[in-house]
Amino acid sequence: MADTNPQAVPLKNVEIHDPFWSKVQETVRTQMIPYQWEALNDRIPGADPSYCIRNFKIAAGLEKGRHGGAVFQDSDLAKWIEAAAYSLEKHPDAKLEKEVDETIGLICKAQRPDGYMDTYYILNGLDQRFTDLEENHELYCLGHMTEAAVAYYEATGKDRLLKAVIRCIDLVDSLIGPEKGKIHGYPGHEILEMALVRLYRVTHNEKHLRLARYFIDERGKEPLFFEEERKKRGLPGDGNRIIRNSYHQADRPVREQEKAEGHAVRAVYLYSGMADVARETGDRSLSEACRRLWNDMTHRQMYLTGGIGATHHGEAFTYDYDLPNDTAYAETCASVGLVFFARRMLELEPRAEYADVMERVLYNGALSGMSLDGKRFFYVNPLEADPEASRKEEDHRHVKITRQKWFGCACCPPNLARLLASLGGYVCTSTPDTLYQNLYIGGTVSAVAGGIPVRVEFRSSLPLKGSVSAVVHPAGRGRFRYALRIPAWCGGKFSLLLNGEKADFQSENGYAVLDREWKDGDEIRLSMEMKVRRVFANPRVGEDVGRVAVTRGPLVYCLEEADNGPGLCRVCLPDRTVFRETAAEGLPENIVALSSDGFRFSLKNWDSDLLYADHAPTLEPCSLLWVPYYAWANRRPGEMSVWVHRFLSEP
Amino acid sequence: MADTNPQAVPLKNVEIHDPFWSKVQETVRTQMIPYQWEALNDRIPGADPSYCIRNFKIAAGLEKGRHGGAVFQDSDLAKWIEAAAYSLEKHPDAKLEKEVDETIGLICKAQRPDGYMDTYYILNGLDQRFTDLEENHELYCLGHMTEAAVAYYEATGKDRLLKAVIRCIDLVDSLIGPEKGKIHGYPGHEILEMALVRLYRVTHNEKHLRLARYFIDERGKEPLFFEEERKKRGLPGDGNRIIRNSYHQADRPVREQEKAEGHAVRAVYLYSGMADVARETGDRSLSEACRRLWNDMTHRQMYLTGGIGATHHGEAFTYDYDLPNDTAYAETCASVGLVFFARRMLELEPRAEYADVMERVLYNGALSGMSLDGKRFFYVNPLEADPEASRKEEDHRHVKITRQKWFGCACCPPNLARLLASLGGYVCTSTPDTLYQNLYIGGTVSAVAGGIPVRVEFRSSLPLKGSVSAVVHPAGRGRFRYALRIPAWCGGKFSLLLNGEKADFQSENGYAVLDREWKDGDEIRLSMEMKVRRVFANPRVGEDVGRVAVTRGPLVYCLEEADNGPGLCRVCLPDRTVFRETAAEGLPENIVALSSDGFRFSLKNWDSDLLYADHAPTLEPCSLLWVPYYAWANRRPGEMSVWVHRFLSEP
Known about the structure:
The structure is a homodimer. The first copy, chain A, is an alpha+beta fold. Among the domains of chain A are: 428-528, Maltose phosphorylase, domain 3 (Sandwich); 532-647, no CATH class. Helices cover 35% and strands 19% of the residues of chain A. The first copy, chain A, has a seven-stranded antiparallel sheet with strand order 2-6-7-8-14-10-11, with no helix packed on it. Chain A has a six-stranded mixed sheet with strand order 1-4-5-9-13-12, covered by helices on one side. In chain A, helix 1 (21-40) packs across helix 17, helix 2 (52-59) packs across helix 4 and helix 12 packs antiparallel against helix 13 (284-300). The longest helix of chain A is centred in the N-terminal third of the chain and has 20 residues, at 21-40. At the A-B interface, helix 13, helix 16, strand 15 and strand 21 of A face helix 13, helix 16, strand 15 and strand 21 of B. Strand 21 of chain A pairs antiparallel with strand 15 of chain B.
């Protein structure tokens, strides 16, 4: 089955040279990764300490002290190593590589003789390890360490960390599993599942795939493991067992899960692992579950920005069409995880819809997690923000108006770094006979299609303009299919030229497929209409009834106080106003802002002491300036809004 | 000063015979008071236990056991006694009076020799009494007990409870006060202030007024008492001292308080006490503060229903124009307290505005606290409700869709009972030369005006119709001013007839003032336009931008799922639809429902799997049925909404 499924063209075969994303990756490489190294070493003045390096130094016996930070603190370091690995793969950097090697040395020095490596239990008592899989994140940290180890091995060929995590996984495999006497458990916070499949793809050791599959298959079986574990720990088994376990997607077997529920990051990490296992094993019931959960999440529980997880209570999904804009959680990590899941769905079946969501998240809900300079980060990505509400309303306190230097729980910044540094791995998928172009990011892709090596040089003007081009270089004569995704945002309005002539293509699952014998230098030009579009939400989304949002190509736009003054909740966008491309003061030139006419409910004609009246407030014309959502909060702090009121004329 | 200020015509001089309110009072007398007696005795199956009577029995040595319920549990019993007293004043009832007398006997038996009477400390250790004025509600319970004692004394002439509370107040007065060696403190939860003034008006004992004034004057002085107390209790004095103390309106002296802040019930109880003290002492700086706080609260922080306290976090005010409909708290007790404050503002100065708010709260945000049968109660009074949100959204969990039988914290039901049972005391205020008709409730009012006793027989068709009439019976020849409030809801459209002829009147602070020599049987007819009005909120209220509400006379209307089906968030009300008076199925005949045309965003034309699109959702016509807000949730549970979308045409 795996052979007929698409697989992602791996990072090592993709070079990115893109006016938009290369700049982002440069920021990650030159700013985020070094900055986060400082953070992990507790050297950022005024930022919450990370304790990460310190914990490992203490565990390695190089320093004295107690474990600092959360039970999952190790994972921040693992994510950083992973991000550094991707960066090194494309940009050799002796200094960085030395830092990573030393860090890996430190991790190995901290590792116990039996392979155990989680600093929390090493420093707080090894006797308690594996006694609280529900909450204590050991398997989560191991999962991240595994991702880091494989990434660093693939980037540098160095296998020291790889061997270390394999020893730890052997330990886990000896303690957890179906066999009598083993713990019949699984991770409280998923990720080890997908990490094991990734490891398996390097080691080809069936044990690694088997353990991943065990975690997937065992999850949610009765008697519920976390309940049994709680009993052992003497915790009450109160009436909330379903809610408590659905938080971990562990209230029922994964194949019976109908809705995306619980902690959003956990959920998309689990679904990614499910998709990986389904792909490796050809398990149709599992891929069916992935498809069902994907649809539930992206068709009923996803913000326009691609953000998921509507509530800060448990960082969780709530229910269908419940997408509050001002109290949105939409954690950056959940966006990152949704990109993981999307790519894996593309590896189960080539459908442009998956890539559309991947693109939506990348350009909006994920990218908004970092400042333009790469040194400040959002954990929460609201679609409406008001400084006064965040200051004075308990329900809005989690909504920050400015990006933070670092977090006590700093899962998001390094997660974003590892995603962006490995972006090349998300551009294309391929089957033996087809190369799928899923993202329009400029660069070079090398793959084998139709049995011959092919190099595609790709150019993109996204998100500024909608034209892209590809020059195909087959290593010899050969027939294969080149499938270009037609993004939903162009509304089917595109032109496709082959060597300057109208191309003859088939439409297939949202792709335009060119099936021919390719000659070296064949050139494809795809022009997609990229006009400003008014977007409306399903009327079941109560929050957005009577509202409209503005998008252009893959970008969601928003209004900021910096450009439009306060009182954004009073703005109305007319149905027929012209949008003009312009620049926003204080934002880089290459960011396309949009100006439009608008109206705003006037305060002038309404006495501030008059709370209710039987005359309607009047509207006054105003001009509006829209900026890409990802770029918000890079200037002076203030209000922000994605959805604004529209004029509703009586039918 | 007191002489020139208006004063409320006391309950004993007012008989209510009103088609609307007599029915409510009958429900209170025949249902609520007996029902609550059962509740206080823990005899309501399936309801949270009250423990009230039980606590007193244990404190009196009649039973064994530990204190049950909250630290303020005694106050529920005090409120019930107060409600029973008002009821007995108008409706002698040997059985009820016997129950009250026995209860008072029980309370006196529980009282300590030194006068102390709070069961929480009697049962948990008297050594700790008065060590936590901030949180432990002893003075709050004493305040309620004082209100009950005065009410029962006024109703029956029996002074046993009165003497008991006076002994307890003497104890408090000996321990708390300005003198060296005394505690320089004040109540964490206010009410004793207004209770002491009420007591003073019976005892004329300066000590009682002085103590009330001390509590008012001392409050918020540096060093902040609650901080000193916390230090003594070894609690950290962290950085939140202002927030922590503004919760109790104790962060600064009351005369320097600019905004209604903190716990809403505490706030309006304090302001009521401030107004009482201001009235008794003629303290202008204090009445100024009352006016300022009144304006801040009612002009910037009050729901259309008269509800106050927008957030469930601390049951508190938030900030100007922050009035979320779906997460509203608007506690019933806060509405009750706002009525207290409004009457006291009317006793500081005759302004129709105060009575307008009093009427708004009574007919809407207060009355909604009880079911039509008087046996179920709301603690929280939202302006928008959705069962799914209440079930699944943590931020909405406090919003109940059905009224409850009772509460672990049952402050609201007996509070509502004591207000409604004493409604007569809120109808009129008078000065030596003027009788002010503040509420249009039918019945008989006896007062002295222009030096002669006057009896006014009043008839009202509110809230069904806008016509009222009064027949004046002076005890002899005499000139005085009869001031009839012209409610804001009639928009100045009214006719006033005196003995069938157009009356000659002066407009004064929102009243129509008839100044003449009255003859026995003079008849006044006031007809106020009572048409359905569309109401709009100040555009600074972000939640209500683009929305409209429906009112008729003093009543706010709402849509319920029972009449309109689900999806109320998708409803739009056209600007020019005709409203017809009708009846709502399942509600009593005498409740005027309103039918109108409307539109609703259609789900038919929108695929439930399509979350966002660049075509606007379509509207379909529908008919709407509106019911009075106070009557919602008396049928099958479902959605409710006060504010709906309106059509905004581009100017």
